[in-house]
Amino acid sequence: MGKRAMYFKLLSASLANRRARTATILAAIIICAAVVSVVTSIYRDTGTQFGKELRRYGANMVALPRPPANFVDQSLADKAARSFGDRLVGYSPFLYGTVTLKDSEVVVVGVRLAQLEKVSPYLKITRIGTGRTLVGRRLAEKLELTGAERLSLSFAERKKVFNVGGIVESGGVEDDQIFVDLRSAQELLGRPQAASLAYFSVLSPIPRRSALISNKAGNDHLQLEPIGRIARSERQVLDKVSALIFSVAGMILATSALAVATTMMAVVIERRREVALKKALGADDRGIIAEFAGEGLVLGLVGGSLGWLLGYLAAQWIGRAVFQASVSFAATTVLITIGTSLAVAVIAMSVPVRLALKIEPALALKGE
Amino acid sequence: MALIKLDGVSKTYGAVNALDNITLAIDKGELLAIMGPSGSGKTTLLNIIGCLDKASRGSVIIDGADISPLSRAELTKRRRETIGLVFQQFHLIPHLTAVENVMLAQYYHSLPERTEAMEALARVGLEQRADHLPSELSGGEQQRTCVARALINRPTVILADEPTGNLDEENEELVMGLFEELHGEGHTIILVTHDQEIGSRAGRQIRLAHGRTVAAGQHVS
Ligand SMILES: Nc1ncnc2c1ncn2[C@@H]1O[C@H](COP(=O)(O)OP(=O)(O)OP(=O)(O)O)[C@@H](O)[C@H]1O
Ligand SMILES: [Mg+2]
């Protein structure tokens, strides 16, 4: 038997020697690991889920032309949208213009019709036909629209015909506007590749990268900024939720560490004669530390792994129950959970180990 | 030249004088019995010779080296190289077998070696019981395992504090016989005992009272 084999023999003997204590410590570490696992999973995945919930409120970023420019270059807005990667929930440029319809003036809005509900979810759209164009509710009443109709819009010398497919209602200015396909609006208004502004719906927290785009694109006459009120309140909600989650997790962590530390203290006191014997047989401080640290590592590793599994399952359930989404497996969560458990176990061991180092070897010869 | 030499050794615990100015020389190969009433300082003396504790005053020379100025860490190193210990309460690790308990002393000393540990167990007549846990051994067998553990690193001196204190007469006889055999082979052994009969089997006795030696070699009834 080599030195290492004897070391592991001693470790397993120590752990087996006090099953109840080992179980207590393991339970404390498992609980702590499960909490870390749940929190990191939820924060990582459902933090995103939570952001998605908030995205029901529509666009939270806007790109505006930077003066003296009057229009946003659509290709730049597209580029900005691409830079958000998979955090982009919805995006559409908006081009506004005043056109003539049956001798009166109306505001026409060129948008990506497929994205309209994502960036402006407060619009209530009622389908009335197969056409793509949407007419504001008040305007539709004024025009006495009864169903799918064709509307002829003219601007300067140009004229275009649109098939009405739905009524749009918001209770605001949109009720007097006509929403048409962006490309058609650009052609009609003679503004190819141009938009008045562009709206983005981006998952919170908005990546810092956007600040870079803002500056870089800013030079190209594009001003990208969060829609103040919405972005700010989203951030506040997220910050409050995470502060709450992290403080609760922190308290559970501290409690587990305390439970491990006090249990180990009891173990050291119970086994002070055994420690004294080992010292009497020639164990030095390093040897004593190695044995306790080894126990800490084993308990941290086993407890951390079991706790991670438990937390992963719990996170699945919470994800499904609260956010109707499954929580994906993430290696970082495993690492963070096991790393935290090891840290808790080793830190909690440090006080009892100091106690063990103080035990006098002479105690071995003392009568009961 | 004495193997162990104590010169003016005192040990105080607060106001208690556990040892008071002890001067003592022990030759190589001696079987020495330390006797005296409870609280007279026998264990304290053994602790100091065994590098388990430090004297408050005086010098302790083992095998030509003065151990009194050594730090605790240095004492630990000296202890595992020169001292073999046998305890009244055996102190075997309950979840290790007899042979593993012997190997534990090797582990802290240098390297665990099963064949050597088995030889030591054979020396105390326990090779058949090597793979049993302490709970499966009789008191006498446990104490013989302890003797094997004390022998395994070839110590300069074996210290035994009341080694037969927890044994019945038959096992006491076995263990004492073992010490006599080891003495015959040239081992230096220091034995603490209350028992007059056991003390008389030693080559020499010293008697302690209130931390001092009294009438070395003489029997006081
Ligand atoms: N760690 C200590 N702290 C305070 N006093 C101590 C300590 N160790 C021993 N003493 C005292 O020193 C004296 C000698 O104790 P020691 O253990 O050497 O006696 P002993 O001869 O071995 O007794 P026994 O036969 O009962 O084992 C006693 O009065 C004891 O109370
Ligand atoms: Mg004693």
Quickly count the helices of chain B.
Answer: 7
Give the structural class of chain A: alpha+beta
Distance between the termini of chain A: 33 Å
Beta-strand level of the residues of chain B, as a percent range? 25-35%
- CA-based shape of chain B: globular
- The average pLDDT score of chain B comes to 93
Written as H for each helix and E for each strand, in order along the chain, the element string of chain B is EEEHEEHEHHHEHEHEE
Number of H- or I-type helical stretches of chain A: 11
Radius of gyration of chain A, rounded? 33 Å
Main pleated-sheet profile of chain A:
10 strands, mixed
Shape type of chain A: rod-shaped
Rg value of chain B? 17 Å
Q: So what's the CATH class of the domain at 2-95 and 155-214 in chain B?
A: Alpha Beta
How many DSSP-defined strands of chain A? 12
Q: Main interface pair? A: A-B, 33 and 34 residues
Q: Which molecules are bound in this entry?
A: adenosine-5'-triphosphate, magnesium ion
Regions with little confidence, pLDDT below 50 for 5+ residues of chain A: none
* Assembly category: heterodimer
Notes on the structure:
The complex is a heterodimer of chains A (368) and B (221). Helix content of chain A is 57%, strand content 20%. In chain A, strand 7 (150-155) and strand 8 form a beta hairpin. Chain A has helices at 3-17, 19-54, 74-83, 116-119, 137-143, 182-189, 209-219, 228-270, 272-280, 285-323, 331-358; strands at 61-65, 72-73, 88-101, 104-111, 124-127, 133-136, 150-155, 158-169, 177-181, 194-195, 197-202, 222-226. Chain A has 11 helices and 12 strands. With 221 residues, chain B is α/β, with parallel strands linked by helices. In chain B, the strands form 2 sheets. Chain B has a 6-stranded mixed sheet with strand order 6-7-8-3-9-10, sandwiched between helices. In chain B, strands 2-1-4-5 form a 4-stranded antiparallel sheet, covered by helices on one side. The model of chain B is unreliable at 217-221 (pLDDT under 50). The chains are: A alpha+beta (368), B alpha/beta (221). Chain A binds chain B through residues 1-3, 5-7, 9-10, 12-14, 16-17, 273-274, 277-285, 287, 360-362, 364-368, and chain B through 43, 46-47, 50, 52-53, 73, 76-77, 79-81, 85, 87-89, 91, 93-96, 100, 103-105, 107-109, 111-114, 149, 161. Bound molecules: adenosine-5'-triphosphate and magnesium ion. Adenosine-5'-triphosphate (ATP) binds at residues 13, 16, 18, 36, 38-44 of chain B.
